Amino acid sequence: MIPFVTGTIKRIDDFPSRFVEARTVDIWTPPTYDESAKIGCPVIYMHDGQNLFCSETSFIGIDWGIDAAMCRLISEGTIKAALVVGIWNTPLRMREYTPQRPLESQAAGAMMARCIDEHGGKPLSDNYLNFIIDEVKPFVDEHYHTATDRKHTFIIGSSMGGLVSLYALCEYPSIFGGAGCLSTHWPAVDTAILEYLKEMIPDPAHHRIYFDYGTETIDMMYESFQKQVDMIMQSAGYGRDETWITRKYPGADHSERAWRERVHVPLRFFLSTGLS
């Protein structure tokens, strides 16, 4: 039984896949969701789905409160009503969330070896993204009244989920219009991601990217990496606080508790009613 949330969650256990192990997928619709509406809803795809809505399933017993954050922003009139698809992780999380192509470059051999040694094999993120794009998204678009185009499709995650969200945007810029990367765990790909981004960061005319980080626990490792990524964003033509945001949260740690406190920022950035 799904604990009480604001809005409605359809939980699909063992969502089948040709690409990855079956897993749970939650599809949240806001109280204002209307199948008969003239315009379909935007959709946000989020990783670590068990941490988003229910404290009973969340990693530390504190969820992100996505339903509450969405409903508050919708009621304020600051964002468009949207669906949120929470894709649960599995024991293969680290391999599925590690960007694959950056580690397959010849210069990244040591990082690939480390991934294999620490996580039991090579990255599986290409198959994981195939699962989202070729199986989950078509299901959602078929069964719900959604806006299926790029400018209404977003992907958000934290830590390793931040990495794979950015990777998804770079690999599939025609599918996703924005990526939200909270406390992005840059050390997992080290400098390999920098060279990859220089080549693959998508056109700022059609995309938005959100980054943030705290200063406590694991997050204290991120600032120097983030500053290098910020330079790439500027070189690619992204406008700070226009098509790209990087926020530093002094005192924030690496936890669902911290992300719950600030997830409204990327939600507003992507879904603002002021955007065309």
What is the general shape? Answer: globular
CATH fold-type name: Rossmann fold
Number of helices: 10
- What is the helix content? 25-40%
Please give the CATH class. Answer: Alpha Beta
Tell me the number of structural domains: 1
Structural category? alpha/beta
**What's the N-to-C terminus distance?**
39 Å
Estimate the strand proportion: 15-25%
The H/E string reads EEEHEHHHHEHEHEHEHH
Low-confidence stretches: none
Strand arrangement across the biggest beta sheet: 1-2-4-3-5-6-7-8
Please provide a written account of the structure:
The protein has 276 residues and is α/β, with parallel strands linked by helices. It has a single domain (8-271), classed as Rossmann fold. Helices cover 36% and strands 17% of the residues. It has helices at residues 66-76, 93-97, 100-104, 109-119, 125-143, 160-171, 192-200, 223-235, 256-262, 264-271; strands spanning 8-15, 23-29, 43-46, 83-87, 153-158, 178-182, 208-214, 244-249. It is globular, with a radius of gyration of 18 Å.
Which secondary structure elements does this structure contain, and how are they paired or packed?
Blueprint: E1 8-15, E2 23-29, E3 43-46, H1 66-76, E4 83-87, H2 93-97, H3 100-104, H4 109-119, H5 125-143, E5 153-158, H6 160-171, E6 178-182, H7 192-200, E7 208-214, H8 223-235, E8 244-249, H9 256-262, H10 264-271
Parallel strand pairs: 3-4, 3-5, 5-6, 6-7, 7-8
Antiparallel strand pairs: 1-2, 2-4
